[in-house]
Structures are given as C-alpha cells and as structure tokens.
Amino acid sequence: MAKPVLDKTKRGWWESAVFYQIYPKSFQDTTGTGVGDLKGIISRLDYLEKLGIDGIWLSPVCASPQVDNGYDVSDYCAIDPMFGTMEDMDALIAEAKKRNISIIMDLVLNHCSDQHIWFREALKSRENPYHDYFIWRDGDASTPPNDMGSVFGGPAWTYVPHLGQWYFHQFVPQQPDMNWENPKVLQELYTMINWWMEKGVAGFRIDAIINIQKDLDFPSYAPDGADGLASVVRMVESVNGVGEKLQDLKKNTFAKYDAFTVGEVFNMKREELEAFVGENGHFSTMFDFSVNCLSDGPGGWYRNKTIAFDDFRRTLFQSQMECLDIGFLANIIENHDEPRGSSRFLPEYAQNEMGMKMLGTVSMLLRGLPFLYQGQEIGMTNCPMNSVEEYNDINTKSEYRLALEAGLSEEEALEACYRFSRDNARTPMQWDDSPHAGFTTGIPWLKVNPNYTSVNVALQEKKEDSILNFYRKLIALRKSEEFRELFTYGDFHPVLEEETEILAYCRSLGQKKVMVIANFGKESAVISDDFFGDCRCLLTNDTVRISENRLTLAPAQVVVLTK
Ligand code: GLC
C-alpha cells in the first residue's frame, strides 16, 4: 500500500520522518564477495518499506581505499566498485523513490583520502596548485608543529620529508584534513554537493563537520592522553567561527535544493544550539549524542564508564528540554560508530527482547527524528570476538594497543573492545539462519555474530511478538494519522521523576496527551497517577495491568498510554 506523501507545510517533509541507517558493507551482498553492495540494498527495499521508514542514511559508498571504511574518500563522484556502479546508485535512488523513501548520502567534508587526486598532487611540490588544498606547517622531522593527538591515536601531524613539511589530520594519516580557508576547496566541495543533489538524493548526513574549523595558530594544549598528546578535540571545542563556514556551505548548496541535512556534531558549544538547528540553523537537525557521551572516560575505552540509569534519564531529558523551543534533534540508540545500544543502555537483567522493545519505544517516541540503525529492529547485539585479529576497525585496533600500553592484560584489553568497539555495530545484517546469516554466499568481510541462528529477520517475520514486528507497530504508531502531529510537534515533558527506576515522559498537543512509561528496574513497579484512570493503551511489550489509577509494570515493561 502506498504511503501518504508527508505534507510540507512546516519546516520540511523530514520533520515527521523515520530514518534508517544502512552500513552498506554489512547490509546485503549479492555478488559473493563477502561485502554488501548497492544491488543488495535495492533487493531489501521492500523489507524497509514494510518497516515503515521514510529515509535511508547511506554510510559512504564513494570510491575509497577503505582505510576507514569509506570515510576516506578518493573520488566523491564515483561509486566504489566494491559496492557497484553509478547506474546501481541511480537505480537505488529511483527504486527508493517509488516506495516514498528518500536517500540521504554521507558527506565527508573535513578530510579526504590520501589517495584522492588532490592530495596526490599536493604531495608533488609546494608549488603544486593542490598543495594549498591541505594544511601544512614547515619544520624538521623531529618536531611536529604542536603536540596534538588524532582522534584514532597517534599524532595529528605526519611529516613529508621531500617537502620538509607536516600535514594535519584529525583522524588517521590517510585522511588529510582539507583547508577550508582556501576558496578553491570550497568551490570543489560545493560543486560536488550540488552534483549529488541534481542526481536526486534528498540530502546528507554530514560527517565530522565541526572539525572543519581549526585554530590556525595550532597552539599547544595540556596533554590529556595516555600517550602524552593533547587530543584534537581540545582544539575543536575551543575554537570559534565554524558558523560562518557552515552558513556559507548551506547557502551555496543545501538551501538551493531545500535539502535535508543532519550534522554529526560533537563538542559543540551549548549556547550555539540555535545556530545549528534553529529556524535558520546550519542544519535541519543534528544527532543527539548526549547519552552516548556518558560512557566517555578520561582517555581510552578501557577507562570508559558504565552508564547509570539516573544519568541516562537526566541527560536524555535535558537534551529534549533544551531543544524544545529551538528545533529538532535526531535520536539514535546506536550507529556505525557506537556499540549496540541494548548492551549499553539497558541494565544487564533487561538485555533481552522485552528490554530492547522498551528501549526502542522510549527512543522512538521522543521529540525529534528517529534514526534506526540496521539490525536494531531485530535486536542485534554486540559481537564477541575471540582475538583482536577478528576486528577490522582501525579505531578498535588503536584502542586495544592503548589499553595494553596502559598495562592491561590482553584479555582486559579485548574486554574493552567487546564493550565499545565500532565493529559491534558493523557485523553483517542477520537475515536468516542459513550460513553467514543470508548476508553473503562468500566469506563475510567481518565476522557474523554467532547469535544469528536465533536473532534474524526470517525468524522474526514468523513470530507475531518479535522485536521486528514490535518495531513495525511502533513506527506505525508514530506515523499514524491520529498521533503523527503529536509525536512530531507535540510538547515533551518528563513525568514521574520521583520514581527511581522509571523513565516516563509525556507528549502532548492541544487536548491530546500520550504518556510513555518504562520500567528499567529489576522488580515489578506499581505507580499511581490520575492519568491511568480511564486511559487507552496504544502499545506495550507485555500485558497492561491497570486497576483504577494504579499501573503495574513488569521489569523491562513499557506502556504507551493516551486519553
Ligand atoms: C565520523 C564517522 C566515523 C569516521 C570519522 C572520520 O565520526 O562517523 O565512522 O571514522 O568520522 O571520518
């Protein structure tokens, strides 16, 4: 059945949309190479349509040496042969459109690959016209321009002996930062973005975008890493002026096409929220990473923290309240850079089907744009690896080394990776219980989670009360005629905050009111509220137990009530 096209009377069609992130390498292989491809995505569009989503965020598919799995682009206007061809891409856009699904590309603007022609030219000489596309500082081989450390470990500078210069990279050396002070660079990037818009994509998820602003003096910061370096993050959070660049970017590209944009923004100054996502903000929306950041320890995954429920609830509510009169945040439980949310945000006793449905509900009905990540809808979990060799991710490998250097045993270092590795979310999609989970007929590029025989789409299709079917109902509820306006524009306010293990909030619009109540506790909970008296249950992962104004919730139970 065709879905109604969303009206565009407010800020954009995207305000009431539900998005789904695809990590193409791990979604569906059709060629037996062990790597997912565009044709594979096309073959699963019906599945996505049935799930009820409106937009797909596609992690990078452009030509890349894959040092950072596509976030090191060597040609922005070519599809990596590993994923297929530009014809496949056009077919994907067209096929998705038929199903009222928009395609959102991943846009990596802070850096490109060291194999991009721009950087290969830049390396030739200081006089080469592309040299100034990147950020260089003179010096000798023993003294980097400052003591900054990159996001993935090691110095943020790499020396090029034949030039007698260092170049700057906030990520790995194969991802040189581009020089956003050079108007020619901007022209190249703007032209490329507009070229993609002309192809019919609906917009972009914009990678590491706040990182484009550098402090060109490159001062030294106090070391904060175990390696004695100061993370580039210190510069990112203290430097000013990114807004002008972002407005210029918007004016020359997105605004011309009314494109939807979602920024990946860490370390933003809080008072800039409006500048980022307000009415004339730099982006349509940006991800809310506030609860993810709660795990951050003082340097290194091995020092990361377990998230206490209280902090989780307070932080989530704070983000919601802060953005209420400003704009929309994009809500996630997990993405390709994060471990699986169920293993992170749910207490151990709730890391089961009930708990996953509860977490999904709490997240989906918040104010803001829900972004699901592939596999979340079937309850995929972190994947146990037997050794560090089983990991692919560069970041995981450097975090493992860091932990060993800090004196942890191999077992302990591996445990930190098990909890926080980005590969936890990158293992192949689990379609069925055939070999390699129906993802490939070849050898998968990354291990398939051994739990695929019990956690897979085919099985959950058949099970009435599966997580998959629950997500279908949840999305349908969010987008239903009756409640779409409320979930999109409705007010948000926390309720029952005095209950120590209950996460509950109210969404309301005019006379309409919906309450979402989730029990994160290990024991049943009994709560009294006048609201329960003559309410109607819209969704639950268990049986509703209400007598007069008393609601009883089983552990990990969620209820969505209205009246
Ligand atoms: C973003 C991407 C991540 C990548 C990094 C460098 O954070 O999400 O996967 O490694 O940028 O491009």
What key attributes describe this structure?
563 residues, globular, binds alpha-D-glucopyranose, 18 helices, single chain, alpha/beta, 5-stranded antiparallel β-sheet
Largest sheet: 8 strands, parallel, barrel
**Share of β-strand residues:** 15-25%
Kindly state the number of beta strands: 23
> What is the 3D shape?
globular
What class, by secondary structure content?
alpha/beta
Q: What ranges have pLDDT less than 50 throughout 5 or more consecutive residues? A: 1-8
Q: Return Rg in Å.
A: 24 Å
Overall pLDDT level? 96
The small molecules bound here are: alpha-D-glucopyranose
**What percentage of residues falls in helices of 4 or more residues?**
25-40%
Distance between the termini: 29 Å
- Tell me the strand order in the biggest sheet: 1-2-5-10-12-13-14-15
Helices, by number, come to 18
Describe this entry's structure for a reader.
- The chain is of the alpha/beta class.
- It has 18 helices and 23 strands.
- It has an eight-stranded parallel barrel with strand order 1-2-5-10-12-13-14-15. A five-stranded antiparallel beta sheet has the order 16-17-18-23-20.
- Helix 10 (309-323) links the parallel strand 13 and strand 14 (328-332).
- The longest helix has 16 residues, at 183-198.
- Residues 1-8 have low confidence and may be disordered.
- Residues 68, 71, 108, 171, 207-208, 264, 336-337 line the site of alpha-D-glucopyranose.
